[in-house]
Amino acid sequence: MAQVGSIQSWSLGVMLHLVLAAILHQGFATVAPPTAAPHKDPSAPEQGKYNLTTSNGTTCLLAYMGLQLNITFNSVSQNKTVQDIVNIQPNVTKSTGSCESDVASLHLTTDAGKTNLTFVFTLNTTTSKYHLSEVSLSAAWPDMKDPLSANNRSLDYLRGTLGYSYKCRKEQTLTVAQNFSINTFQVQVQPFGVSGTTFATAEQCQLDEDDMLIPIVVGAALAGLVIIVLLAYLIGRKRSHAGYQTI
């Protein structure tokens, strides 16, 4: 039965290696942008539903997402540089924009025009891939010493395929500039190839896929362990019976 014990020890080692590999994979995968967003105050923002339609009433862009702004500015009241975290409130936010064959923009205005946020999506017609390529912000809050303006036209976030929507349940941070980033929550967008008023089949983001990886690997390892132990038991039992001779 010593061989049975060695087989069981080997199977436990295999399972531990699989679980460790999954954990390491998840750790390395979240290093690249966009990154998982830390939990901060205020609480997670409400998911807004921002749809664009053409002049003939056809929906051309769908965007459901909770947005949280991280802004660094010079505070009048505190007389120093501070960081403020503000949720975009969908019920007081106006959405406008435009849709073209390879560029789509979504413009959000809130706080009676004191905050203007624009997302620009670009489609590569050769590869049929789209991504969030530009984000700009202008804000003029009462406590700001000077109005804030930030823009980045070389982004590569929220990547998807034409004919599919992009979806990410997990919170993530989109860094735009040194003094401005966006935390996104429960995002699903489709800036091109919209048919009707519902999203096409979703492509899951890497962060969501990584969250699902460990349970799958652990489950597979446990199932494999059960099979190996059962086989080891049957082999050991068969050899035990073979050791007895009929008189």
TrEMBL record:
Principal subcellular localization: membrane
Signal peptide, first to last residue: 1-21
Membrane topology classification: Single-pass type I membrane protein
CDD domains in the record: TM_EGFR-like
Pfam hit, one: Lamp2-like_luminal
Chain segments annotated as transmembrane: 212-235
Lysosome-associated membrane glycoprotein 2-like luminal domain mapped to chain residues: 45-194
Location of the Lysosome-associated membrane glycoprotein 2-like transmembrane domain: 214-245
UniProt cross-references to InterPro entries, sorted A to Z: Lamp2-like_luminal, Lamp2-like_TM, LAMP_CS, Lysosome-assoc_membr_glycop
Domain of life: Eukaryota
Cell compartment(s), UniProt: Cell membrane; Cytolytic granule membrane; Late endosome membrane; Lysosome membrane
Keyword tags: Cell membrane, Disulfide bond, Endosome, Glycoprotein, Lysosome, Membrane, Signal, Transmembrane, Transmembrane helix
Disulfide bonds listed in the record: 168-205
One GO CC term on file: late endosome membrane
GO BP: establishment of protein localization to organelle
Family the entry assigns: Belongs to the LAMP family.
Name of the protein in its database record: Lysosome-associated membrane glycoprotein 1
Source species: Channa striata
